[in-house]
Write a structure and sequence with these properties.
Number of strands: 0
Radius of gyration: 28 Å
Strand content: under 5%
Number of helices: 5
Distance between the termini: 72 Å
Largest sheet: none
């Protein structure tokens, strides 16, 4: 006796299928990478693993940019202090330093690579 065929309606697959076209050179590079792995994955598994590796690296690298910008800001502030006019009043020196570190407001407001600051 045959088993009744179950419908897939309403079921969510464990993983979605994504397909893409790749140049022969890219396909060969993925195949070469797969051959160097100990378990010799299929081409589709190798492509998935490479995407996972790239995405993991992309998320890990982000905090370093904040760290580097803080270091750069500190180095710039120290250099500005060394080059500042010692005869100017302290308040004027602070205004000049802030202007140099933050940049002109017309450029600061137009930055697209940074989120807008929220007023608190």
């Amino acid at each position: 006796m045959k088993k009744p065929v179950e419908s897939d309606a309403g079921k969510t697959p464990a993983a979605s299928v994504i397909s893409f076209s790749a140049a022969d050179e890219l396909r060969d590079s993925i195949a070469d990478w797969a051959d160097r792995q100990t378990d010799t994955p299929t081409l589709s598994t190798a492509a998935r693993r490479l995407v996972e590796i790239a995405l993991a690296d992309a998320t890990v690298g982000r905090p370093q940019a904040d760290e580097n910008s803080t270091t750069a800001r500190d180095l710039a502030a120290a250099q500005i202090d060394r080059l500042s006019d010692e005869n100017a009043p302290a308040a004027e020196q602070a205004v000049r330093k802030r202007r140099l570190l933050k940049g002109p407001s017309e450029f600061r407001d137009e930055r697209v690579d940074r989120p807008k600051k929220q007023n608190r």
